[in-house]
Design goal:
Length: 270
């Protein structure tokens, strides 16, 4: 059992790192392409989404160790394709402008929502389809993986909006550079404690489940969920601690023109 837990956690970390790096690589390569070329890239990569959705549906019927891994990987494929459409600037939101100064917090929120609206809708639709494909079957690790990623990302976006001490903007492509104006460098906001608490409780819950189950496929599945939840929790703490996490992927990406990697306290955020 101990070996299965360790292997599953290592696999989760590697798949998270590799899939993130693959997306960033494609985004970096296509950064100077026009919109229609980027659109073609997203369309030609649609099989990734199809394979991911099929994998979640297919693995939901099977209770084996392999299917726990495949369900986890399938959720990453669905998530990754949606993220690709966002980072390439294909599916974002109607608002492409910088955040004006001296406006109310409510107006800033509306404008910030406008920068992400279509992307947020696509994520919500993705969550709905993933749940629909697998909720009635025994293997729901794909659903839970996507759900953890979904809420962790919502929490992260709200924290960037409300203000955190440290923001890494190195991998934000030029097409989405206006998003930086909606970030805020400040002391910790009230929602940070809420989000970290919820992610911590989620992580602890997977640990409890991990040691309560007996079947090998469940041990692997909950180990994968524990690992991905722990990484989401660490991602939030990186907003507080000045840790150069970008080095995990920077070495594998082609060089681009110099940009501001870390937003400083004087940035025009919220």
């Amino acid at each position: 059992m101990g070996g299965s837990i360790f292997i599953a956690m290592v696999a989760a970390v590697f798949l998270w790192w590799f899939s993130t790096g693959a997306i960033l690589l494609v985004v970096r390569i296509t950064e100077n392409f026009n919109f229609f070329t980027k659109l073609k890239v997203c369309i030609f990569s649609l099989p990734i989404l199809v394979v991911g959705l099929f994998g979640i549906w297919k693995t939901s019927f099977n209770l084996t160790i392999l299917d726990s891994y495949l369900a986890f990987g399938s959720a990453l494929l669905v998530w990754g394709w949606i993220e690709l459409t966002f980072l390439t600037g294909v599916i974002t939101g109607p608002n492409k402008s910088q955040c004006p100064k001296n406006i109310t917090l409510f107006e800033k929120f509306i404008r910030a929502w406008g920068t992400l609206a279509y992307h947020e809708i696509s994520l919500l639709l993705g969550l709905g389809v993933v749940i629909l494909l697998g909720y009635a079957q025994g293997n729901q690790f794909g659903i839970w993986t996507f759900t953890v990623l979904y809420f962790a990302r919502i929490f992260a976006k709200l924290n960037l909006f409300l203000g955190v001490p440290h923001i890494n903007a190195e991998f934000i492509p030029e097409a989405l550079s206006h998003l930086k104006s909606y970030f805020k460098i400040s002391k910790l906001n009230w929602f940070f404690s809420v989000s970290v608490t919820l992610l911590t409780l989620t992580t602890v819950f997977w640990v409890e489940r991990l040691f309560a189950v007996q079947n090998s496929h469940e041990v692997v599945g909950f180990s994968l969920l524990f690992a991905i939840s722990l990484m989401a929790l660490l991602e939030h703490w990186f907003m507080v601690l000045s840790i150069p996490d970008a080095r995990l992927w920077r070495w594998m990406l082609p060089k681009t023109k110099t940009k501001q990697n870390y937003i400083n306290g004087d940035y025009n955020g919220l």
